[in-house]
Amino acid sequence: MLKNRGRTPELLFQFLTRFSGSFILILLCAMLISLTWEAWPSIQKFGIGFLFSTEWDPVRGNFGALTTIVGTVLSTAIAMIIAVPLAIGVAIFLTELAPFSLRPIFGTAIELLAAIPSIIYGMWGLFSLAPILADHVQPWITEHFGFIPLFDGPPMGVGMFTAGLVLSIMILPFMASVIRDCFLMAPQVLKESAYGLGATTWEVVKDVVIPYSKRGVIGGLFLGLGRALGETMAVTFVIGNAHELSISLFDPANTIASTLANEFTEASDPLYLSALIELGLVLFMITFIILGLAEWWLNKSSPGGKSR
User: Fold this and answer.
1) pLDDT tens per residue, range 266-276
2) Looking at residue 292, what is its pLDDT?
3) Least enclosed by CB within 10 Å: which of 9, 152, 241, 267?
4) Does residue 231 lie in a domain region?
5) Which residues lie closer than 8 Å to 111 by C-beta, 6 or more apart?
6) Which of 255, 238, 55, 253 is nearest to 163 (CA)?
7) How many CB atoms lie within 10 A of CB 139?
8) Where is the ABC transmembrane type-1 domain (predicted)?
9) Which of 62, 63, 66 lies closest to 74 in space, CA to CA?
10) How far are the Cα atoms of 17, 220, 248 from residue 7, in angstroms, in the given order?
11) Cα 271 versus chain centre, distance
12) Close Cβ partners of 168 (under 8 Å, ≥ 6 residues apart)
């Protein structure tokens, strides 16, 4: 009887943990099935051409996702190019260079920045950052680098460049906080051994801290990437929301998330609503594929491989 009483909590524990682990997979499948079901009218009418068409005409009932896909990928790429080196630099400063008395203050400030709602970033970007970019930054860039098509065009303040910049500011504290925690997990004895052998701070960071915490750092970067891909309100405020495919970063554009935020309540026609849901399905698949590839690459590059 004592043996059976001891096994009951163990069996209950195993059931709860297996159910919790399976719940994520069930939820993922349910979301995919629901989105596909709701988007089926649009999938049937436009087929694979939906992904490659730049047309978005609700009046005539013609819809394509290429402009929003390009806008989503490009704004996320700009954000990552700006935010990744800054986040790693902030994390190195907080763990290796900042005075010990100031580290908690800087760390708390970064965590508070990561908790600010995205709509606040969007309002700040529209009313404060965009005028500065339009009056000072974009004219200077156009004057000196206007021969590059990416930086040609009227300085309007809102557009792809501003959206990417606001996104980078949003994901920077989030990634810096995660990377800082990963750097702090590097064994102190290894760092002190390296310093004892005469290594500089840069050499300790490069040869000890970063290799030891590489998986966690990359995981933090991809968490930031996932947030940038699906960000809605901040981008909606500053990207201009135009269904146009332009090579200039200063021109208005849109993303999948901003299109859904702007037009979902206006979609009275069933096909229009179905096309918007198909956009959501496309965003779901883009995020799933990118994060899946990241996980595959991490498994492949780690010493333990799949045995991890």
Assistant:
1) 888 899 999 99
2) 83
3) 9
4) yes
5) 173, 177
6) 238
7) 14
8) 69-294
9) 66
10) 15, 39, 66
11) 29
12) 78, 79, 80, 81, 82, 83, 86
pLDDT(281) > 90: yes
DSSP states of 12-73 as a string? HHHHHHHHHHHHHHHHHHHHHHHHHHHHHHHHHHHGGGGGT---EETTTTEE--HHHHHHHH
Contact 259, 265 (CB under 8 A): no
Look at residue 1 and tell me whether its pLDDT is greater than 60.
Answer: no
Q: pTM, whole model, 2 decimals? A: 0.88
> 167-195 pLDDT, tens per residue?
999 999 989 988 998 999 888 898 888 88
Domain count along the chain = 1
Q: Supply angle C-alpha 185, 117, 68, rounded to 5.
A: 100
Task: Give the three-state DSSP class for 253.
Answer: strand
Per-residue pLDDT for 106 more than 70? yes
The label of the residue with tokens 């554009």 reads 253
Note the pLDDT of residue 69: 93
CA 167 to each of CA 10, 59, 183: distance values in angstroms, whole numbers, following the listed order: 46, 32, 24
Structural domain contains residue 307:
no
Number of neighbouring beta carbons within 10 Å of residue 106: 16
33 contacts 220 by C-beta, under 8 angstroms: no
Name the token pair of 71.
């806008």
Q: Residue 211 sits in a domain of what CATH number?
A: 1.10.3720.10
Length of the chain: 308
Residue 70 within any structural domain of the chain: yes
Q: Count of CB atoms within 10 A of residue 174's CB?
A: 21
DSSP 240: B
Q: Which residues contact 295 (CB under 8 A, 6 or more apart)?
A: none
Residue 256: both structure tokens together: 């999948």
Domain assignment of residue 88, yes or no: yes
